[in-house]
Amino acid sequence: MLNLSTLDQQTLLPGTKGLALTQPLQQKDIAQQHWNVLNADTSFPVAVLKQSALQHNLQWMKKFCDSMQVVLAPHGKTTMSPQLFDMQLKNGAWGITLATVNQALVAHRFGVRRVLLANQLISRSDTQAVLALMQADPAFEFFALTDSLDGVQRMAEQVQAAGLDRPLPLLVELGFVGGRTGCRNRDEALAVARAIHQSPYLQLAGIEGYEGLLVGKHRDQDLIAVRAFINDLITLTQQADNEGLFAGEQILLSAGGSAYFDLVGRGFEQTMQLSRPVTAILRSGCYVTHDHGFYHHLLQEMQTRESVVKADNLRPALEVWSIVQSRPEPDLAILMMGKRDASYDIDLPFPVKTHRPGDKSQPCDLPAGCKIEKMNDQHAYLRLPRDSAICASLQVGDLVACGISHPCTTFDKWPVILVVDDDYQVQSAVNTFF
Amino acid sequence: MLNLSTLDQQTLLPGTKGLALTQPLQQKDIAQQHWNVLNADTSFPVAVLKQSALQHNLQWMKKFCDSMQVVLAPHGKTTMSPQLFDMQLKNGAWGITLATVNQALVAHRFGVRRVLLANQLISRSDTQAVLALMQADPAFEFFALTDSLDGVQRMAEQVQAAGLDRPLPLLVELGFVGGRTGCRNRDEALAVARAIHQSPYLQLAGIEGYEGLLVGKHRDQDLIAVRAFINDLITLTQQADNEGLFAGEQILLSAGGSAYFDLVGRGFEQTMQLSRPVTAILRSGCYVTHDHGFYHHLLQEMQTRESVVKADNLRPALEVWSIVQSRPEPDLAILMMGKRDASYDIDLPFPVKTHRPGDKSQPCDLPAGCKIEKMNDQHAYLRLPRDSAICASLQVGDLVACGISHPCTTFDKWPVILVVDDDYQVQSAVNTFF
């Protein structure tokens, strides 16, 4: 669906992270190298995506959205990978959500036809760049957010200055006190919606909110707050429609990060009497790879409240494999992996498996108590349980696989990520553009 | 000195972070765009390097090394930028230190002729890649570390298997209890040195240590530990030389991160009676851009103990400029800048200046009390002092400049970084390869 041929045909040079190249290699020839991570044919560290888990997650989310009658505009900032965008679009995604104009330009370059910018157009140069793209490509659908009268005025002026031949479609962002962007109440949001309606350069396309920041210490309270916020979004949509503020054939109603998208889906099932059809859009991005930490726990919670999730769950697809460089103290192993290679913002990586290159067996699970206790830029400190078998056996040159917490901050460390089968045989690669 | 023409001639595409491109642009034509950050001609966020501070820091370090009679192999993992490597080599750097084989391959691709790998060669594929390069390019000087007999044996086998026509030069790494890699005492290190000496495939080129991890809560104790560690390195060098273990025309003696390089330099001044000349090598990497946080404080401390530093100090060269997207609550501004754009591992970014695009005046310093209190992937939460003038005046579309703490984790977020003059006029760009 997307134009990926430039990626297949690109030449990967020696020095590309994760690959151990001595000669330039066309990316499309990766499978023919017959690399296997377990045989240490790659460089270390190396980030891998497990093909079977990816496919599972793509289908899982399609089924989830179908069952809730919502569409998906997955947040592309998670991966910034055209190949993954392509898989998501082929699996029925309505469009791709993005965070910055430059991310939108990357997506457009590879053929994404519909972008929801989950941010505002503020800077003059960025705004001009995206308006120029819309003017040059009438088939490119682009939606942005706004949360202030100032913002509406800036955008109207810039659309006028650019001479765009159609109004710019906007979603008003509703937020909450203590949150990030977004009007702090429905009255403010309605005032912004009216200002959009009144401008010939703008068009009110929908209402948007982001409930994913409501992750506090008391989940019961979080859930109450999320449900109340979703109800607020629905009430705001109804109010704006009662005033006849929406333009376009349908009304977009969007929320949903990767933590509570079940509550968003259930909330959006409420019957609304509106003047035109509603397209309810989830924007979850992390589902595609899932993780071993932050989202793993949130999805386990989701399993307790949602039957669609209970039957089956997302699977972690992203791992970073490293190699033991040193065993300098009895219960310490130093790995070739650091802040340059794996997420460290919510949790440090989780060591899950080990393997000795050349062994014919499958990787062993690491026992509980193995822990990455620190990372420097290029090193990780793996602490092993004293007197454990692994403490006695792990040696220099052994491989250690880590799961990660929060995929967004691992993706941005890898221009090329290898896609592997269940035996860690390298099948292909995906690229990222950060 | 390096081959940078491919970088000058490369085409930057729309979507490149920091640039607001509507058309492809050859990198060499950046200056002719007459972009000024203060005029909001770039995209936001944008990372900039201040040319005058860079030049100052390069000359400062040259003077420092000359005064201490040490050479510099700056750690290239900080920037991974060929243009900055080029500036460092033109300023007299002895070589470039790197952390991984892939980093070394990148450096070699751009023409770096001497690499000190501040790590071990462990993985088979990575080792084969670097040995192939040494075999193909006899003029390429490459040194690696080792801290174990296992490691020595692995390397000897791999050099033998690769058929390298010369022995691989190694430095034995001395560490300390509670540290990272490195032999935990001189006896272990001497055993490793002897094993290298006995292998026909290896050559003992020197002794190495890294004191930069000794940053604890009590600086007085840190300084005592650093001085003792430097003395240990010197004693080990003397012992290895007494046993006739070194090969080559000189003995390399290397330590020195970016925190205590004055103590390393002073320590290395000690007279040693050795069989051949000693080359004392600092590996500091962060000096080239310095920072507004972690290293700023460490260099302020260095000023209290070292006259060379007292007279003049390093200057922060790296800033990330962002734009106010929303003022959703009275003392809160949401910036277009997040974990994708600026370091967050030691400190969150420091908001230092603000500017309203179009204003003819210089940027204003932000008052004390302005603080980035949180970052998401793509957003920063700037808290403003209540009742301050800036709290009343800062508006959507205003620019905010942030200093950073720990340059390594900002460089890795920017494939292209703009170089600006003191008026924030864009002069050129440097590239990074992570």
UniProtKB/TrEMBL annotation, chains A, B:
Keywords: Lyase. It holds the Pfam family D-ser_dehydrat. Residues 317-421 form the D-serine dehydratase-like domain. InterPro entries: Ala_racemase_N, D-amino_acid_metab_enzyme, D-ser_dehydrat-like_dom, D-ser_dehydrat-like_sf, PLP-binding_barrel. SMART domains: D-ser_dehydrat. PANTHER family: D-SERINE DEAMINASE, ZGC:162816-RELATED. Belongs to the DSD1 family. This is Amino acid deaminase. It comes from Undibacterium danionis. The lineage of its organism: Bacteria, Pseudomonadati, Pseudomonadota, Betaproteobacteria, Burkholderiales.
